User: Which sequence fits this backbone?
């Protein structure tokens, strides 16, 4: 995908989402129009929170209480899921499992919960086949540390992709069996904060905290910051020992906090390239340095963030196994018995109405530690996301993951395995699913019961 070959953008800078401060929020999902691809093309009909995509950037301090009043002005029911937040089960936003859907045409629901962990999170609907996210319903939820690190700017980039036609209209093939049985709905146009950016302007010698959020239905990003060495200081919202990777990889739903030290010369330009898919690399945007003199000549070491209050799993944790199956080129479920279902967890295909009358995939005892081995026996990537909890990513393909990290989503490569560990310290029924939303809707979703 080359964005310059398709609907070339005229935006000169990344659009910044509107930030809403304070403890009480109002979110109104509705149908609206927004120019995604530049003034030379028509505006696109999208679904957005508060008439924009992304929705308002919600910022709090660690320990504050969030209260969000949602009024649904869409022509379809919806919910809001607060991705990555450890919150009460009734506030998790999963229809049929934790709440009834918010009715179309004016239905209301109030979400209210404390924010125990600092970090980068986001919010989005949790219905159906991913159509609502693909139409633009997402926004950032930022929980600032009580003592945040010193940076010159704190910036959020929400990455998303869109499947547009040549008139910049959103293609309506949301329930495609081809997408569902393969890699999911991957679009042909990538935006940052709701627009195709040409450049992001920086000053030589400034230090940025760059918060990356993958809000795509299925696209995986592998970002290279040419001429720069950004430090990763948090993954999925939680601090890690600062480290450098040449390429920052984010599956759907995943986040990364970077310290980006702007070491380039005044007036220079540097590409940010997404090259995750072989043979399909493209320039996401350019870092363009203003001509101003360098702000500072040297940088302090990247800061280490204070840990969030998480319980460390016991070394003697009980072991559970979850096997991912199905998909094209795999052992597909019998379509005569399970129409429209392409994926399995532990050999069982689950329909999108899986919450009704189904038994939990796992039953965990409150307060106990567990090690879960996830085995991907398919030919496709799966970012597996667990609601209401945070887990340690212990290993991938038998190799210890270092530096040690907490996560709520782990990306499994084709024919791979990962081992995670957690303390089941949040009671309720919690979704476990692939965050390629077309996979979630066609079998790769279940729930874990903690009691």
Assistant:
């Amino acid at each position: 995908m080359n964005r310059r070959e398709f609907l070339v953008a005229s935006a000169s800078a990344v659009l910044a989402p509107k930030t809403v401060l304070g403890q009480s929020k109002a979110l109104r999902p509705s149908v609206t129009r927004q120019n995604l691809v530049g003034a030379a093309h028509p505006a696109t009909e999208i679904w957005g929170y508060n008439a924009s995509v992304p929705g308002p950037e919600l910022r709090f301090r660690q320990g504050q209480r969030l209260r969000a009043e949602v009024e649904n002005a869409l022509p379809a029911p919806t919910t809001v899921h607060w991705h990555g937040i450890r919150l009460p089960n009734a506030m998790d936003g999963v229809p049929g499992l934790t709440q009834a859907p918010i009715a179309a045409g004016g239905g209301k629901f109030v979400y209210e919960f404390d924010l125990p962990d600092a970090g980068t999170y986001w919010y989005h609907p949790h219905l159906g086949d991913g159509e609502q996210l693909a139409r633009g319903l997402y926004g950032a939820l930022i929980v600032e540390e009580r003592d945040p690190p010193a940076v010159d700017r704190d910036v959020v980039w929400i990455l998303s992709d869109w499947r547009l036609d040549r008139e910049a209209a959103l293609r309506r093939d949301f329930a495609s069996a081809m997408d569902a049985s393969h890699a999911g709905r991957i679009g042909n146009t990538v935006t940052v904060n709701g627009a195709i950016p040409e450049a992001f302007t920086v000053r030589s010698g400034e230090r940025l905290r760059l918060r990356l959020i993958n809000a795509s239905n299925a696209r995986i990003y592998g970002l290279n910051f040419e001429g720069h060495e950004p430090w990763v200081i948090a993954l999925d919202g939680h601090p890690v020992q600062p480290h450098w990777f040449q390429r920052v990889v984010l599956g759907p739903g995943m986040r990364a906090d970077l310290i980006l030290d702007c070491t380039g010369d005044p007036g220079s330009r540097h590409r940010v390239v997404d090259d995750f898919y072989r043979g399909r690399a493209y320039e996401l945007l350019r870092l363009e340095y203003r001509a101003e003199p360098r702000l500072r000549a040297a940088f302090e070491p990247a800061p280490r963030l204070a840990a969030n209050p998480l319980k460390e799993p016991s070394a003697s944790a009980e072991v559970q196994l979850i096997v991912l199956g199905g998909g094209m080129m795999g052992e597909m479920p019998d379509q005569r018995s399970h129409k429209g279902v392409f994926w399995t967890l532990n050999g069982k295909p689950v329909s999108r109405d899986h919450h009704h009358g189904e038994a939990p995939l796992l039953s965990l005892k409150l307060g106990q530690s567990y090690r879960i081995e996830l085995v991907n026996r398919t030919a496709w990537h799966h970012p597996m996301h667990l609601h209401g909890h945070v887990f340690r990513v212990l290993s991938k393909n038998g190799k210890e993951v270092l530096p040690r990290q907490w996560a709520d989503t782990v990306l499994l490569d084709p024919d791979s395995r990962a081992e995670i560990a957690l303390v089941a310290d949040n009671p309720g029924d919690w979704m476990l699913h692939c965050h390629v939303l077309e996979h979630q809707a066609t079998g790769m979703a279940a729930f874990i019961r903690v009691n």
Q: What stands out?
A: The longest strand covers residues 153-162. Residues 177-181 form the longest helix (5 residues). Helices lie at 131-134, 177-181, 437-441. Residues 1-16 have pLDDT under 50 and may be disordered.
